[in-house]
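Quick question: who can interpret this fold?

. . .
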Amino acid sequence: MNYMLLEKLEIHIAKFPITGLFMLLQFYSIGQMPYEKKIDSTVTIELSIPHGNRLRVLNDCSSLNNDVFIIIRNDTDSIVRFYENWNSYGYYNFTFEIKTTDSTYTVSRPHKLWYRNFPTHHNISLGESIVFQFDLIDTVCASRGRDHGISVNGWIGIPNKIDTALIRVIYSLPSEYESYPDPMRRRLDYLEYLDNKDELNEIEKTDPTEENKNRIYIFSQTMMSEWRKVVIAH
């Protein structure tokens, strides 16, 4: 505390009681009130690509390590839902952008037929996060003997070149998936493929109650991660 300044303020109070008292209160409030930091309440997305001393090489058909990790964190006051990616509701919601020295490419999932399909989701509460893991390999690698499953679950659009690149992930939910289909439609979809009453009851439990439905919702905003540097090898 600056006592000389305080002494001057006390003299000023004696001459001008009202204005001096106001200045003294301001002085004490500045010196004693804690600084309140505004909390950014939002949902964030991060792209994580682990690597050692060298940049990570992606889309090498001969490699079994093309995994990337998407981390989504919830810092809101609600429970946010993200569809699981085993069904069509969540399968196409992540795309990647790759920026090389001369072009920018969009990397997405190829469309496929769904023989078993109904919406399920992950619940993310306040302060919690979830990690999605993807094998970011182009479907053309299936013809090179690496893994024939790639032709169905791989990606399309990865540049066919060798180059240092920047990559980021984009989350975007189609408008028709911004809310669950009505419970009857979901039950019919589910029973078309499964005949297990216990599992059906578990699916029905995912519907929010009237009391909590305003605090539980499917996250539908578009969001992008920061860019990460990698090497593209095809």
